[in-house]
User: Which sequence fits this backbone?
């Protein structure tokens, strides 16, 4: 029953760098948790505190309710796949993956079946006899992943496990890794900077920034109900506008943007007159080509198509709205031919899809920084 | 003018052809991306174009002039590396001034040039800082400014975004395209990331095993790939094996899938009974009241839409998307799927099998 709890942990490194700053996190038994955040957010340090490679300055690390802060790595029963793979250089792929089963004296037949299936899952079957120096970065990473999975630990800690892989292979392995881990009934913490990866794999996502957890929730919750403007823009791109809150009712709120546009958004507890930021995911911006005689909604903004980017299944359209600047919108690529540069469109969204925030203390620009 | 031509370019290491007989034209002002899996020879190719490597066979021409034997430093060519490689003992301004300095441009002018490019990448406000005080994405912007401040009309981008966070990568690719189009620069960009290739390029050159596998605009390659490998590599797709059963009155192909079900696909001239592979992208698979039966195995919310993974009665896994405005099925539910027939591609089944055709290494 591995349940992981971090309580008010702090870690400061030499030179006074605060890597982890009074952080709380609870990973439930059997849960697949993604720790998502930009480079330097403290993700790896959190992982190392769970497995015992780093001791917190203060606070507690609990496994199944037991304080393990002072228990050595070897007795924690966690498997870490580190960013630099740490494969045994003098062992083949097979021997590397077999390492854990063999030192733990498992039944050789069982061990062999397990090791083979792990190697197949990471597409390393054809390279099973290769040595680490004969492999590409991606192949080493896949071997390390198979080795971690084959260790029979109940807690699996993955530090950017897909980072060195080609984009296409990453898509494939992303789909397989979760079902594998679920079948093995592991509690997992997976560190990543890639929000799409986190959305696809995680049961819950913990968004981390500057050593603190900002929000924990299901992928849908994090995407639809972001707690801060940063989360709104980091997990799926958002358009963020500033303005003053005019009023808010049960159904929606009304905001007067600095550009002079009046827009509707989700209702909010903030009081009228507050300076606010409104965030709308690019996929939720509706842009319609003007048609003669068509009635337009009560409020909308007029935009001009300034650039269309083809992205395969989707297109990203940049719309120039007078006074406001660029509003970005994402649509199915089947609409590609509708959007010619210079075309006039109306820009609008469903009010409940736009989230209202008070302006953060650090300023909006600092808040929205991605790295 | 800055046009690049490659004529029968090969690069041999020992007995191994890393790059094998490549012919390619990059028009003046065109943005061309070389896309391919690890080990396909794409990095070797960009190195031969830029002069870091001399091709063992063939010619590289810049504006019709043979530069195959012209050393790197005498070619007018800007280069940006994956690992950023800024001078850490110089400020960002000094970094950006580096190329003009090497080109012996007078000091006041050198400053102006550097500032112009730093401004273009929105880094002028950080000109007096050192690279290590910037984030990875900002450093790469300074590196691009440094490369462009040489005044070169051709830019080589060697996996310029691979070392950056995913979210930063997304912003920066839009930025790079805007910048080079504004300046009218000819670009050769190397990447393994198909999404990146699609959103920045005018033309994609898909490489496999040292050879050009396919060349097309992003849209053509995504909508009308000429091979199974191209269909698979350029984006998510479902590949299903079957046989040609016949044709509808309007000429659409009817394919008999493994295990019995029939589906309609694009118009093709393959003969009845031919073994085929069909490719249909997740956004072209829809739930209907009749069609290919399947059981829901997994679902993931991917932001504005759900990705549903099902096990079809043919024994294949199929992925499809539904907008988050609609209800999603539960795991274990039975669903019926239909494919958008115009967007279902039909390919002859490869002789060495499907697995071999889509192998990434």
Assistant:
């Amino acid at each position: 029953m591995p349940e992981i709890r971090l309580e008010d942990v702090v870690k400061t490194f030499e030179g006074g760098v605060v890597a982890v700053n009074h952080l709380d996190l609870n990973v439930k038994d059997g849960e697949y948790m993604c720790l998502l955040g930009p480079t330097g957010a403290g993700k790896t340090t959190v992982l190392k505190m769970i497995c015992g490679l780093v001791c917190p300055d203060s606070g507690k690390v609990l496994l199944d309710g037991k304080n393990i802060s002072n228990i050595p790595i070897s007795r924690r029963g966690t498997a870490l796949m580190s960013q630099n793979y740490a494969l045994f250089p003098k062992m083949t792929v097979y021997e590397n993956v077999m390492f854990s089963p063999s030192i733990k004296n498992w039944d050789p037949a069982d061990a062999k079946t397990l090791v083979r299936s792990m190697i197949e899952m990471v597409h390393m079957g054809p390279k099973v006899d290769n040595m680490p120096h004969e492999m590409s970065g991606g192949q080493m990473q896949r071997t390390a992943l198979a080795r971690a999975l084959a260790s029979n630990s109940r807690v699996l800690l993955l530090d950017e496990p897909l980072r060195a892989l080609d984009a296409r292979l990453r898509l494939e392995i992303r789909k397989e890794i979760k079902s594998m881990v679920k079948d093995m009934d592991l509690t997992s913490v997976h560190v990543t900077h890639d929000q799409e990866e986190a959305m696809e794999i995680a049961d819950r996502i913990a968004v981390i920034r500057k050593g603190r957890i900002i929000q924990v929730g299901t992928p849908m919750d994090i995407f639809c109900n972001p707690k801060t403007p940063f989360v709104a823009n980091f997990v799926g791109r958002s358009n963020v506008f500033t303005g003053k809150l005019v009023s808010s009712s049960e159904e929606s709120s009304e905001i007067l943007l600095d550009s002079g546009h009046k827009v509707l958004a989700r209702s909010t507890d903030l009081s009228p007159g507050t300076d606010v930021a409104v965030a709308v995911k690019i996929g939720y911006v509706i842009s319609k080509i003007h048609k003669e005689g068509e009635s337009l909604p009560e409020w909308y903004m007029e935009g001009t198509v300034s650039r269309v980017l083809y992205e395969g299944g989707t297109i990203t359209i940049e719309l120039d709205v007078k006074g406001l600047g660029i509003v970005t919108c994402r649509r199915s690529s089947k609409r590609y031919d509708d959007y010619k540069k210079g075309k006039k469109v109306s820009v609008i969204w469903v009010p409940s899809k736009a989230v209202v925030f008070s302006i953060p203390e650090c300023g909006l620009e600092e808040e929205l920084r991605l790295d | 003018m800055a046009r690049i031509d490659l004529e029968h370019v090969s690069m041999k290491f020992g007995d191994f052809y890393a790059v094998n007989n490549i012919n390619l034209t990059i028009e003046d002002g065109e943005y061309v991306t070389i896309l391919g899996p690890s080990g396909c020879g794409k990095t070797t190719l960009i190195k031969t174009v830029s002069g870091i490597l001399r091709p063992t066979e063939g010619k590289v021409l810049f504006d019709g002039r043979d530069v195959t034997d012209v050393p790197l430093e005498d070619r007018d060519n800007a280069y940006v590396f994956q690992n950023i490689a800024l001078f850490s003992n110089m400020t960002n301004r000094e970094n950006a001034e580096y190329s003009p300095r090497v080109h012996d441009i007078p000091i006041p002018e050198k400053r102006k040039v550097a500032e112009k490019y730093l401004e273009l990448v929105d880094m002028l406000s950080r000109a007096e800082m050192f690279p290590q005080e910037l984030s990875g994405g900002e450093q790469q912007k300074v590196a691009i400014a440094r490369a462009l401040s040489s005044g070169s009309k051709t830019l080589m981008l060697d996996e310029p975004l691979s070392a950056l966070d995913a979210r930063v990568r997304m912003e920066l690719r839009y930025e790079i395209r805007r910048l080079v189009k504004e300046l009218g620069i000819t670009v050769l960009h190397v990447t393994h990331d198909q999404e990146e290739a699609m959103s920045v390029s005018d033309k994609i050159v898909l490489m496999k095993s040292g050879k050009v596998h396919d060349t097309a605009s992003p849209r053509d390659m995504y909508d009308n790939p000429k091979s199974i490998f191209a269909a698979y590599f350029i984006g998510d797709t479902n590949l299903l094996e079957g046989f040609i059963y016949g044709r509808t009155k309007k000429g659409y192909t009817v394919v008999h899938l493994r295990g019995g079900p029939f589906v309609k696909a694009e118009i093709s001239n393959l003969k009845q009974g031919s073994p085929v592979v069909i490719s249909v992208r997740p956004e072209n698979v829809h739930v209907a009241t009749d069609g290919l039966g399947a059981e829901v195995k997994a679902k993931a919310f991917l932001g504005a839409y759900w990705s549903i993974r099902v096990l079809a009665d043919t024994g294949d896994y199929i992925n499809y998307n539904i907008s988050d405005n609609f209800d999603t099925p539960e795991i274990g539910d039975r669903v019926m799927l239909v494919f958008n027939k115009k967007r279902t591609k039909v390919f002859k089944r490869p002789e060495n099998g499907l697995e071999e055709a889509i192998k990434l290494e």
Observations:
- The mean pLDDT of chain A is 92.
